[in-house]
Design a protein that fits this description.
By secondary structure, this protein is of the alpha+beta class. It contains 3 helices and 6 strands.
Length: 125
């Protein structure tokens, strides 16, 4: 069984941001030489996540507004009583999730026609 570990870093420009990483992941799969299997994409930061969805900008605004309604900024989260101010970002991670698994077929990501992989930053600077 073949394995490859690849770490990606991102410079986010906003506190909340979605970054399309599909090409990065596809490149890592090609570099690995793996023809059939699975790729695990996992966020290594506790206030970020990974999800698969459409790249349509309106949908991303809908997702962001949905997350803000469920987990508003400025709320008196218990986490903030420790001196931190990012309790909302931790909770958004729970809603989006921190990893996805994508099939690899013939050396390529086996995604649907509109599916893309996104890194979701909830506490960027």
């Amino acid at each position: 069984m073949k394995f490859l570990t690849e770490y990606m870093t991102f410079d986010t420009k906003k506190r909340r941001e979605f970054i399309n990483i599909t090409r990065n992941v596809d490149y890592a799969v090609k570099k690995s030489g793996i023809k059939e299997g699975m790729v695990l994409v996992s966020a290594m930061h506790i206030t970020s996540g990974v999800f698969i969805n459409d790249a349509e900008p309106g949908l991303h605004r809908d997702i962001e507004e949905w997350l803000l309604k469920l987990v508003p900024e400025g709320h008196d989260y218990y986490h903030h009583r420790t001196g931190e101010v990012n309790g909302d970002a931790h909770l958004r991670n729970l809603l989006i999730g921190h990893q996805v698994i994508v099939p690899v077929t013939n050396g390529r990501l086996d995604l649907g026609p509109w599916q893309q992989i996104f890194y979701a930053e909830f506490d960027g600077q």
